[in-house]
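User: I've been trying to design a sequence by hand for this structure and keep getting stuck. Would you show me what you'd pick, starting by listing the structure so we're on the same page?

Assistant: Good idea, let's start from the same input. This is the structure you sent:
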């Protein structure tokens, strides 16, 4: 079991307990555990090899949860979770994936109308039975039907974070099989696409492919083998992800890597180019068209060089002008994780984060950051324990004192005073100006009322920008990759206004968000709207998600100069001036 699977089970336990109406503190401890596990850089399976001892020092994990982790890494099951599933109909978990339906609503549907799955919910909404419940009306039925439609259109794909974890673990395993000399996940994963259909792994080997195929099928996390050939096999993992593996001769590894990395559109354009040069590119190599003689194929660089191009980074291979740019020597200078100097979207346990201000600051310092903005939620987000005016003022005082302490200790690190303030349905902000004016870094975001018309939503966000009180528009389209479509908003208008008011747009690195997406980022770059890459960290390990943000930015052709939090603090503060 990989970390993401364990985290999912903890989330489910929290959901199931909440549906049952269990103690909120108990619910919260499982939610926190899920957050912590999700962000761990090391595999719990590896850590648990030393027994409970190996799991002793994970912050936020107590004894009861530690035992469940041990059980899951050893047996692949959690008896407590299994027990809950017997008490609460399993279909209810599906209902919780419908955007806008939380455990409390699901419990009402179950108890009042006997609804136990998404199909039942859909039927009830269509039969106008939901409106018989207190607090529900015609509008809520419409919203739920739309959310069910969204959910269906998105299932069957994994988010980038989960896919990376599964592919990484599989890769580590394959590398240990004797005879395997190289092993790389290709496909959309290597291009860091925001959602992944299945995982493609290429292995180079110097011995018989059959041995590799045996090892592949024996991977402990395989649910069943879908197909098995001499050089290509497909398996289904326990988590429901499909993995294809291809065994390639060393001589063709570069050509195969290029071919199976895609995208299809990029490869077609590249093949056309080769054809014009009298060459033929296939997964086996580059060949002279007339004589059939082998021209290149051992490395990807060789393949690109054979058609007169420099190597093109996988994130750019979408046939969006990268071949022309490569030819003319104007490929973007690729952004690097090391270019990021601070995180401007961080939550603490004052709202819905798992760690204290001090713990988060330590984590940011450890990463080599120079600054971090604490941006807890405002009161409108009741579920996240959002801060009212009084609590913000108290937090400001604490941050000032903390910065003073850091200074005395000679640390070159600054905590910026911030907030993630809600843009209410009418476009007003959820903190008074008197509070906002005291902050260094104000994020504004939409967290509810997603189903507005495009013109209303655009107007709502424009009003927030025009307040002159915000620095950054957080997760600008509100999408959740596994469950919620972006809300309807005119992004061009938002960008134009943002530039006028000196507001930056966020690229939220959370793997289920990656919002803005690659095409919006390209548009922002074209329009000269600055971008901030943040993690929206709710626990220490979420800082690592910056990797997904940086690679998504690369897909949007962003360079270091386009990203505000690559600047030193002094320069950043000048740029964060509100107009
Ligand atoms: Zn948010
Ligand atoms: Zn946030």
């Amino acid at each position: 079991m990989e970390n993401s699977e364990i985290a999912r089970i903890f989330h489910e336990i929290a959901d199931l307990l909440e549906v049952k109406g269990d103690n909120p503190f108990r619910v919260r401890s499982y939610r926190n555990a899920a957050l912590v596990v999700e962000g761990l850089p090391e595999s719990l399976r590896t850590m648990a090899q030393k027994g409970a001892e190996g799991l002793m020092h994970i912050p936020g994990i107590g004894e009861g949860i530690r035992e469940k982790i041990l059980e899951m890494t050893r047996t692949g099951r959690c008896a407590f979770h299994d027990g809950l599933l017997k008490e609460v109909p399993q279909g209810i978990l599906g209902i919780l994936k419908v955007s806008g339906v939380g455990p409390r609503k699901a419990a009402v549907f179950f108890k009042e109308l006997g609804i136990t799955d998404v199909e039942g919910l859909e039927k009830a909404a269509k039969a106008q039975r939901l409106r018989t419940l207190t607090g529900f009306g015609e509008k809520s039925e419409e919203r739920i039907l739309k959310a069910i439609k969204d959910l269906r259109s998105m299932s069957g794909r994994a988010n980038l974070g989960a896919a990376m974890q599964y592919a990484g673990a599989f890769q580590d395993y394959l590398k240990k099989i004797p005879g395997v000399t190289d092993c790389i996940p290709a496909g959309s994963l290597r291009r860091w696409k925001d959602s992944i259909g299945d995982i493609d792994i290429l292995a180079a080997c110097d011995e018989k492919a059959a041995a590799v195929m045996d090892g592949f099928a024996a991977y402990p996390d395989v649910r069943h083998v879908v197909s098995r050939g001499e050089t290509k096999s497909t398996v289904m993992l326990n988590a429901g992800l499909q993995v294809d593996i291809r065994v390639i001769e060393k001589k063709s590894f570069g050509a195969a890597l290029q071919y199976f990395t895609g995208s299809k559109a990029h490869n077609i354009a590249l093949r056309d180019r080769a054809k014009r040069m009298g060459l033929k590119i296939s997964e086996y190599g580059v060949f002279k068209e007339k004589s059939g003689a082998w021209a290149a194929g051992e490395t990807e660089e060789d393949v690109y060089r054979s058609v007169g191009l420099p190597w093109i980074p996988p994130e750019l291979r979408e046939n969006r002008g990268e071949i022309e740019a490569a030819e003319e020597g104007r490929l973007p200078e690729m952004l690097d994780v090391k270019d990021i100097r601070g995180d401007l979207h961080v939550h603490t346990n004052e709202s819905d984060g798992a760690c204290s201000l001090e713990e988060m600051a330590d984590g940011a310092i450890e990463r080599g950051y120079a600054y971090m903005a604490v941006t807890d939620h405002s009161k409108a987000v009741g579920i996240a324990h959002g801060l009212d005016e009084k609590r913000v003022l108290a937090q400001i005082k604490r941050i000032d004192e903390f910065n003073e302490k850091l200074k005395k200790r000679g640390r070159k690190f600054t905590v910026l005073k911030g907030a993630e303030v809600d843009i209410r349905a009418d476009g007003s902000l959820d903190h008074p100006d008197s509070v906002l004016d005291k902050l260094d870094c104000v994020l504004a975001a939409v967290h509810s009322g997603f189903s507005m018309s495009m013109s209303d939503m655009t107007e709502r966000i424009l009003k927030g920008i025009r307040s002159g009180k915000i620095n950054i528009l957080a997760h600008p389209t509100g999408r959740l990759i596994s469950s919620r479509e972006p809300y309807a908003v005119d992004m061009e208008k938002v960008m134009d206004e943002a530039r006028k008011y000196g507001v930056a747009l966020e690229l939220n690195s959370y793997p289920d968000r990656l919002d803005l997406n690659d095409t919006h980022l390209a548009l922002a770059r074209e329009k000269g709207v600055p971008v901030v890459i943040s993690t929206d960290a709710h626990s220490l390990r979420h800082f690592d998600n910056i990797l997904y943000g940086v690679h998504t930015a690369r897909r949007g052709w962003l360079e270091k100069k386009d990203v505000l939090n690559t600047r030193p603090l002094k320069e950043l503060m000048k740029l964060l001036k509100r107009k």
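That's my pick for every position. To get oriented when you compare it with your attempt: Residues 345, 347, 420, 536 surround zinc ion (ligand 2) (CB under 6 Å). The mean pLDDT is 92.
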